[in-house]
Amino acid sequence: MTRGDEALEAAGWYEGRDVGDRALSAVLGSVALAGPAADATAWAVFPAAERALRTFHGLRLPPVGPGRDEAPTGCVIDPLEARHARPSLLRLAETTGSRMFPLGRTDADALLAVDEEGRLFSVGHGEQWQLGDTVRQGLTALTEGRAPHRMAARRWSWTVSSAVDGNPLVNAVRTALVAVYVLHHRQMFSARGLRLTVTPLRGIGPVALDRTVRLPGGRLEESATPLVTAMEALIEAAEVTTEGAELKVAVSAPPKTVGPPASVSCAVRTGHLAREPAMVELSLSAGAGASVGRVRAAVRACSQDLARHARRPSA
C-alpha cells in the first residue's frame, strides 16, 4: 500500500465507500449555485462524475511524506469548492474534448475536475494538468508529490533528404503523402486534401498562394503525380514564382473533426534551406488536448513513424 493510499484510508476512504445522498446533494448544490452559463447550459452530471463523488466526497486529504517528484499537496473533495470554476473547466473540456465536472480544490488553490472517462485533472496558475487516469490514482499522486502530466501543445520536426528529380514540389508532396498515410494508419484522421502555400522569402509581400487540393481517389502511392500537376497548374494560374520562395504542403484534419485530433497536423516545407535545396522539413504538431489519453498514444506513434521515414535513405 502506498502512502497516498494510507492517506486516503486515514481520511475515511475504503473499498466500496458510497456516501450516496450526500454526494447527490453536493452535485445538486454545485449545479444550482453555479447557475447556467452564457449559453444557458448548466453543469452536466455524467456517470463518472457521480461515481467519483459517491466514492470520495467529503474527504480532506493531507500531503504525505517529502514528495516523490515535487512538493506534495493536500486537497478537499467537494464540488462546491470549485463551483465558480466554469470558465476554467469549460476551457479544459474544450482542450480534452471531454466534459468536466468540478470535484474539489487543492491546498494550493488549484481546481480539481473529473471528466467523462473518469480521469482526474487540475487547473491552476494558467496551466492544465492530468493527475491520473482514475480519480484514486490522481489523488494518491497529488498527496505523494508525484509529478502530474502537463497538458501542452507540442511540435516535432525532422529534416528529410528526399531528392527525387530535383523538383522541390515533388519532394514536398511525396513526403506529405507519407504523413497522410501515417495519420490514417494510426487512426488519427483520414485527410481529404493537401494545402499548398507559397510564400516569397524576399520583400514584404504576403503569402502568394494558399489553396487546398483534394486527394484523388485510389492508392496513395499513385496520388503524387496528379497532385503535383494540380498544384503546378495553381501556381501557373496565380502567376506565382517558386524561385526564392518557401513551399509548404500541409496535412490537416478534415472539417468537422472534433476534440484533440482536430489540433493535430503535419507540414512539409522546402525552399527555405538555400544551401540544401533537396532537403525538406517535415513537422508534426499537436495541441494540448492531444497530450493525454488515446490521442497522446496515437500522436507518439505518429512521431515515431515519421522519424523513421526521415532517417530512411532517399531512393
From TrEMBL:
Top-level taxon: Bacteria
Protein's recorded name: SUKH-3 immunity protein of toxin-antitoxin system
Source organism per UniProt: Streptomyces pratensis (strain ATCC 33331 / IAF-45CD)
